[in-house]
Amino acid sequence: MTRSWAGRQLTLTTPSGACDAPLVIAYEKGFFKNAGLDVVLKKAGKDEDITAAVGSGKYVASNGIFFNYLGPIYNGTPVKLSGGLHHGCLDLYARTDGSVPTVASLKGKKIGVSNLQGSATNFFSLDLLDAGINSSPAAKQVEWVVIEQDLLPKALKDKRVDAIATAGGFLPIIQGVKDGWARELSNNRDISANADQPCCAVVLNSDFVTQDPVTAGKLVSAWADGSRWAGANLEETAEIESTKNYVAGKPDEILQVLKTLTFDPSPKNLRESLQPGIEKYVRTGFLPADVKAGALADKVFVDLGLNF
What we know:
The chain has two domains: 9-87 and 197-300, D-Maltodextrin-Binding Protein, domain 2 (3-Layer(aba) Sandwich); 90-187, D-Maltodextrin-Binding Protein, domain 2, CATH 3.40.190. The two termini are 27 Å apart. Strands 7-6-8-5-9 form a five-stranded mixed β-sheet, with helices on both faces. A three-stranded antiparallel β-sheet has the order 3-10-4, sandwiched between helices. Strands 1-2 form a two-stranded parallel sheet. Helices cover 40% and strands 17% of the residues. The radius of gyration is 19 Å and the shape is globular. The chain is of the alpha/beta class.
């Protein structure tokens, strides 16, 4: 049996970075409202476990790289994924002093991240794997150093870490690149061999999709409309993110980030990426070695009948 969520208020996590443009636009341009959805945005706590909060129903939906959700879903957290939103918002930076010329040279080095279970940690573990490095903290072939996001660029510049991995189009480190002391070592746009993986996808509360897959489908479709609009209107999107205080930055600064993203929403492409992505991710040690990739992909993804 299903239970309608039509007309109910749907709480989503408030956007926190330039790469949340699809959500910003879907909300500000009325795509959610036009789909008959009553969406409210709520700011998550600084140290809040978003996956667990979506699973508990505190939020109906949020977004993030699909690798973030594999472990929690494998361990029983009741959330589902549907709808990749874009590519391109994950970056690995080193200094320009030659101390880390390649990803392979990170063996035995320190990498600053804002969260050990975060998007950047998960994604660049694949790059480290390709370079012959076991990225699992237990292997001790690299040292993941947790540092508050805003302090990551200074930690790199002051040589407290050898590289930093960031998510969401982080403006301060982009300025470091412009100033000449930092450079991109890898990213999920055009450098990494793993760049075919969507960096952001919609994560949904399992009860929501089970009880009302029609309304869930409308939510994902409207979110995807926001992604397409943002991709076609980068300058106005940057203006909205800045003037509406979604992102701390001037429109021209935010525009630099938006230009690095590929807005290509697609549940179909996300589903096709899951099994090969899981197969490789298992080899990083962040998932148990006996995980069956096909079974986990089926468990992770929900088919809402969206054909794009």
